[in-house]
Amino acid sequence: MSESAVEAYLDALSGQRQYSPHSVAAYRRDLLLYQAFLDARGRTAAVATAQDVREFIAGEHRKGRSATTLQRRLSAIRGFHHFLLAEGLATQHPALDLRAPKSQRRLPEVLAPEQLGQLLAKRKDDPLAVRDRAMFELMYSSGLRLAESVTLDLIDLDLGGGMVRVIGKGRKTRDVPVGRQARAALVDWLRARAELAAPGERAVFVGRGGKRLGERAVQQRLTRLARESGLDVPLHPHLLRHAFASHMLESSGDLRAVQELLGHANISTTQVYTHLDFQHLSSVYDQAHPRARRRKTPE
């Protein structure tokens, strides 16, 4: 398997399929490992067999790779062989009928509303602190992914209408509401932003140097804010999105609406949040359903 074929496939993912840079980088790592495995066997992808692919995945499993990683690696290999067939560079697809081990779906952790209030309560005049509060208020208010937050441009904000336009996975666009507190925090930040932003910079959230803020910086700032707020829980940006989803679903019960707000292509992805507060849902059921309500025992 030549590196040029791999790069051509990755270019197609990035350009035609609109895969994110993170996904393309992960696929590159997966395919380079696969290429090294085939090279050691003196084979190329054009003549690889199902047994080759099976033994590569089995070897990765023995190394302790998670089911999620194995699924992604097999997906990368499967897509690459499909590309080779389409381009006339191979005559067979060795990975077509192979399946990786299934991973257990883990329930996401969820912050309580009180914990979020504690996290977002601190107010400082420092421009970076003002930015952080606006950013985290927005992520919780609108359920934004980390990548969606750092790629926001000023033109995407409609604070008057209380909306933000988000470019999600697969370059799909969605418009989501922005809550009152997030709008107020964003107004404060846009005033302070003028002190930091470089001329012509389009990004909503910028760093100390005036350029678009990176994902790693956001993670570090959230960890720092959690520590300063006295939250004794490991905190990462995606927990704000999880909190948005679970709190919205608990309050509204509208799974389809939450799916749209999160930008999930498949409702099964959203359904994981229906299991997060089973005790609460059971309590509602016990109180509401005619055949669930307990009759009072005669005295």
UniProtKB/TrEMBL annotation:
InterPro entries: CB (IPR044068), DNA_brk_join_enz (IPR011010), Integrase-like_cat_sf (IPR013762), Integrase_catalytic (IPR002104), Integrase_recombinase_N (IPR010998), Integrase_SAM-like_N (IPR004107), Recomb_XerC (IPR011931), Tyrosine_recombinase_XerC/XerD (IPR023009). The active site is at residues 145, 169, 238, 241, 264, 273. The keyword Iron-sulfur does not apply. It is found in: Cytoplasm. One of its GO terms (molecular function) is tyrosine-based site-specific recombinase activity. The keyword Cell cycle applies. Keywords: Cell cycle, Cell division, Chromosome partition, Cytoplasm, DNA integration, DNA recombination, DNA-binding. It comes from the Bacteria. One of its GO terms (biological process) is cell division. Residues 106-286 form the Tyr recombinase domain. GO terms for cellular component: cytoplasm. Residues 1-85 form the Core-binding (CB) domain. Belongs to the 'phage' integrase family. XerC subfamily. HAMAP family: Recomb_XerC_XerD (MF_01808). NCBIfam families: PRK00283.1, recomb_XerC. This is Tyrosine recombinase XerC. It comes from Acidihalobacter prosperus.
